[in-house]
Amino acid sequence: MIAPTAIARMIADETARFTSANPRSAALARDAARHWHRGVPFHWMLDWGTPFPLFAARAEGSRLWDVDGHVYDDFCLGDTGSMFGHSPAPVARAIAQQGAHGLTFMLPTEDAVAVGDLLAERFGLPFWQTTSTASEANRAVIRWCRGITGRDKTLVFNGCYHGAVDDAFVDLRHGVPELRRSLVGQVYDMREHTRVIEFNDLAALEAALAPGDVACVLTEPALTNVGMVLPDPGYLEALRDLTHRHGTLLVFDETHTISTGPGGWTGTHGPLPDLFVLGKPVAGGVPCAVYGFSAEVAERMERARAANESGHSGIGTTLSANALALAAMRAALAEVMTPAAYAHMLPLADRLAETLRAAIVAHNLDWHVTHVGARGEFICTGTPPRNGTEARAAMQGDLERALHLYLINRGVLIAPFHNMTLVCPATTEDQVARLGNILGECLSSLME
Ligand code: PMP
C-alpha cells in the first residue's frame, strides 16, 4: 500500500526537480504563452503532469532529446504515432524525395497502386480509402455503415476511445449511459444514436443487437484506452457471429492493436471484421489513416453513393491521400512495419513486461502487467479488468502522475494518461532494463 502522503511528497519533490532541470523549456513555455492558448499549439501537450511543457529538440529511433539537452528513452513514441521509431530512415527518405516533387494534388500518384496492394495483402480486406487521421477514418466508417444499412445506431463499449468521434463519447456509469463529461460544446444527445455496453458481456451484446437497428459495432479488438482490457477467449469470435446474425457490420479499429503483429490483432488472432481502421503509425508519423472493407461492403457503398445526388458526401477532406502521405505510407508499410521489425519488438515487449513484473513483485505490490504485442500497460490493481468499469476503478491518478514525473526526471518517457509503454524496432534491452530499474527505485522511494 502506498500512502497518499508519500505520493504528494513525490509529486512536490519531482515538480521542483523538473523545474530546476529544465530552464530552457521553462523559458520557451513563457514565450509560447504569448500567443498559444494555454501556452501550447495543441492542448494535449499539457497532459504530461509536468509543471510546464517539456520542449522537444529532436528524436531518433527510440530516443528523444529535449531543449535542455537531456536524452530520454522514449516508450511513449508519440502515443503510437511513432510506434516504429522516430524518423525511420525509409520514411525520412520518402518524405525528402516527395517533398521536392509536390505535396498535395488531389490526384493519385503511382504510390497509390503499391499502397493499395500492400494494404490488401497485409490486412486481408480487398478495398481501401485514406483519410488524414484515425478519428476521421472512424467517423467516415460510422457514416458509411449507417448509409449502407439504413440503420441509425452505433454500438460501442464502455471505456472506448476512437479519437475525436463524438458518437463514441458515451459512457456507462453504474450501468446507465451518460455523455462523456469532457465532450465540450456538443449539443446533440449522442445517446439517441449510440448504444453502449460493457466489453466481454455477451448477454448485453445479444440484447443490444436484437432490435435490429445497429448499423455497426465499433471497437478495438482489445480496449487500449482505458488501461488495457483483453477480450475473453472466444469473445471476438462470438462478436463476429452475433453481428453477422443481426445484419450489423463489425468494425475493428486497429490503430493501437497494430502492436500485435504485422497484420494487427486481426492478422494474428482473427477474426476478420467487415471494416478495419488503422491510423497513427501507418505513415510513420505523417498524418494519414486508412480504412479497409470487404467486397460486399464496397458494393453496398457504391449503391448508397449512386442513389444519392453527386456532390460533397461529408466524408473525406482535401488533404486526404496526398502525395506526401502516400509516399510515407508506402515506405512505412513496405520497409518499416516489417515482420523483421516485429521479430525484434515482440520478444522485447515480453522482456519489458517481465522486468516490470519483477520490480512490482519486489515491492510486494499487487499490480498487474499486461501487453498486446509491443504495447504494454501496468495497472495498479491485482485483478486484470474485464471491462471499462473495472478498468476505470483501477486508475490511480495521483500515483500515476507521481510515477510519470519521476520517470521523466530520470530520462524515461511513458505515455501520459495511463501507464503505457511501446517497444519499437530501435528499442534496446538496456533501455528496457533501465526502465525496470528506475520503476523499482521509484517504488522504493514511495514506500520508504
Ligand atoms: N483509434 C484509437 C484506438 C485511438 O486510440 C485513437 C487516438 N488515441 C484514435 C483512433 C484517433 O487517432 P487520432 O487522434 O490520430 O485521430
UniProtKB/TrEMBL annotation:
Belongs to the class-III pyridoxal-phosphate-dependent aminotransferase family. Keywords: Aminotransferase, Pyridoxal phosphate, Transferase. Its cofactor is pyridoxal 5'-phosphate. InterPro entries: Aminotrans_3, PyrdxlP-dep_Trfase, PyrdxlP-dep_Trfase_major, PyrdxlP-dep_Trfase_small. The keyword Lyase does not apply. It holds the Pfam family Aminotran_3. The keyword NADP does not apply. One of its GO terms (molecular function) is transaminase activity. It comes from the Bacteria. This is Aspartate aminotransferase family protein. The lineage of its organism: Bacteria, Pseudomonadati, Pseudomonadota, Alphaproteobacteria, Sphingomonadales.
